[in-house]
Structure formats: C-alpha cells, structure tokens
Amino acid sequence: MFYGLYEGLVRPCLFQLNAETAHNVTMKMMHVMGQYSLLTGMIRQTVANRPRKVMGIEFPNPVGLAAGLDKDGVALDALGALGFGFVEIGTVTPKPQPGNPAPRLFRVIPAEGIINRMGFNNLGVDNLVGNVRASRYEGVLGINIGKNKTTPLEKAEDDYLYCLEKVYQCASYVTVNISSPNTPNLRTLQHGSALESLISALKKKQAELKNKFGRYVPLAVKLAPELDDAEIAEVCGIFKKYGVDGVIATNTTLDREIIRDMPHVTEAGGLSGKPLFKKSTEKLKKIREELKGEIPIIGVGGIDSPLAAREKMAAGADLIQIYTSFIYKGPKIIKDIVENI
Fold first, then answer.
1. What is the pLDDT of residues 142-175, one digit of tens each?
2. Please, which residues have CB within 8 angstroms of residue 303's CB and are 6 or more apart in sequence?
3. What whole-number distance in Å separates Cα of residue 118 and Cα of residue 277?
4. What SS3 state is found at 74?
5. Which of 22, 117, 237, 327 has the fewest CB atoms within 10 Å, measured from its CB?
6. Which of 135, 172, 179, 180 is catalytic?
7. Residues in a beta bridge with 145
8. Torsion of CA 305, 28, 8, 258, to 10 degrees
C-alpha cells in the first residue's frame, strides 16, 4: 500500500517542485528515515532472492541503483531497505565542490527522461567515507570516484588515486567515472595514452591496497555512449590488458534526437532515462563483443521495466542499474524487475 502511494500522491507532489529541489527534499527525507529503525521499517520492501556472483562479489539480486542519486552517501540506510541488490554512491571527488550553476537538473516528462549538468557536486571524499562508516548498511556498496573540476587534466590521475585509497576499505567495488559530460574535458580520459596511464596507475594502486588491507576491491570503469566502434575496441583492449574488473555501460548521452520536440531539449548536460535505452544498449552489445566475456558488464541506461531489463541482459549485461525510472516509477520498479527479470 505504501508503495502504491508513490505514483498517485508522492510523485505528483514532488513534481510540483523544480527537479533539484525535489531531489534535495527526497534525500533529506530518506536520510531521516534511515536514522530511525521504525521509519526504515515502514519503507522496507522484500524482494525475491535472485543471487548473482559478479566481479567475485555475491549480489543478492542483479538490480542496483546507479551513481548520482546519493552523491554523499547520506541515504544509504533508507536505500538499502528498498530491495536493491546493490547501491552505488557518488560521484565523489577529493575536495568538496559546488558543481555547476543552477538550474542544472531538468525533467523531460513526455519521454520519462532527465537532463542534468550537476558537475560532480559533492561534499568531498572524507565526508562520504564518514557517512558510510556511520550507516548500518551492510549490502553491496559501489563508490563512484571522479576528479575535481579545478584539477588540471594532466593531474587527474592524482585525484582518482587519492579517492581510491580513501574509499577502498568501505567499498565493495569502486567505479572510475571518466565519462560524465558535465566536467570539462573529462571524457578525453577515455582515449589512448591518457586512459592507459590512468588504468595502469589505478591497477597498481589497487594491488598495493590489496596487500595493505588483505582485501581485493574490484575496479569498474564507466563509459560514455558516444564512443564509436573503433574507440570501444581500443578501450576494451586496454581493459583486458590491465585486468579491469568490470565495465559500466553507459553514462548519460549528449544526443537530443529522440527528444528534439520536447521541453528542455536545448539544455546542456547528460540525458538519462528512456531516451537513452536504445543507444546505451547498442553500445553495450559492442562492448560485450569486444570483451568476449572476459570482463563482466553492468548495464545502465533507460531500464524502466522487466522487459527492458531482460533486453539489457540479453545484450550482455551481467547486472543492471536503474536511476531515472526510480524517479518516475518509485520503489516498486525495483521489485517488478527483480521478480520478473
């Protein structure tokens, strides 16, 4: 009954607010709910057990929350009660940063999409680690790391290594975000010598941290849907060479063709949700072809139903993540997909 209220009452109220205000209100509410067992129990959702072992990790089910919703790890306890098989928080950077000027988050309601140009707004990696340590969440936790906007591109490697070391002990896996369209020139790190240097350094640091802490934390890399076939082949070759543990396909898109006649089409930023599904799935298929099953893939982009989830997995995803459909459909989408995948 509680979850039946979302589309009929909760979402209409939230959608009366601008998108970022609604997001902030939701995160504050979830933070409060997570602080009290009674409130957490009220939103707890039991879903079927559909275990998957990926990247050496036991996932209770294959449906996760993508990074971006909970950038600072403030709502982990509440999110953990909703039935996700795993939760990914971030993107987090070494130093706090405000992100891009508002307005920077827009609903494309006719297409069930969202455009954002948030720009890695977060309170810094130390704050995130403190929130994780203070939470009661015991599920699979991904932590998504990035670079500060003010860090020169030639120094980006230092930011990623710093964040990896900071989050290593409290993460189940770490995602390297080099594909957001909202940090200037970040996507250039997906190419050639810049990518090879970054991945080599991260894998070396990962080995050092494994020896130091006696625990192996997998590294996944999140890619953009704008990569062409030749670029995907290059990227996957580097991943196989250095033993990257996972690939997340894909981040948001700059393509506006599908929403060309819809509200906010001229807004800059990454487009997520239904309009991204076809493009991200096509890229996932190509990545799977190049990886030949050697590296697992987490599929993300426009998954809004069990049918879409099955199509994503048929294309090669070992796990999937949702974000925008969670905003539009509420927590029941988690249960729907897990139990009908």
1. 999 999 999 999 999 999 999 999 999 999 999 9
2. 277, 309, 312, 320, 321, 322, 325, 337
3. 21
4. coil
5. 237
6. 180
7. 92, 176
8. -40
Q: What is the DSSP letter of 253?
A: B
Check residue 50 and report its DSSP letter. Answer: -
Per-chain mean pLDDT for the chain: 97
Closest CA to 75 of 118, 121, 135: 135
The H or E element that residue 223 is part of is strand 219-223
pTM assigned to the model: 0.98
Q: Helix or strand or coil: residue 189?
A: helix
Asked whether the beta carbons of 194 and 188 are under 8 A apart, the reply is: yes
Contact residues for 230 (Cβ-Cβ < 8 A; gap 6+)? none
Q: Can 180 be counted among the known catalytic residues?
A: yes
Q: What is the number of other CB atoms lying within 10 angstroms of the CB of residue 314? A: 11
Considering only CA atoms, which of 285, 292, 339 is closest in space to residue 317?
Answer: 285
Which residue ranges make up each domain of the chain? 5-340
Residue-wise pLDDT for 178-189, tens only, equals: 999 999 999 999
- Tell the CATH topology of 5-340: TIM Barrel (3.20.20)
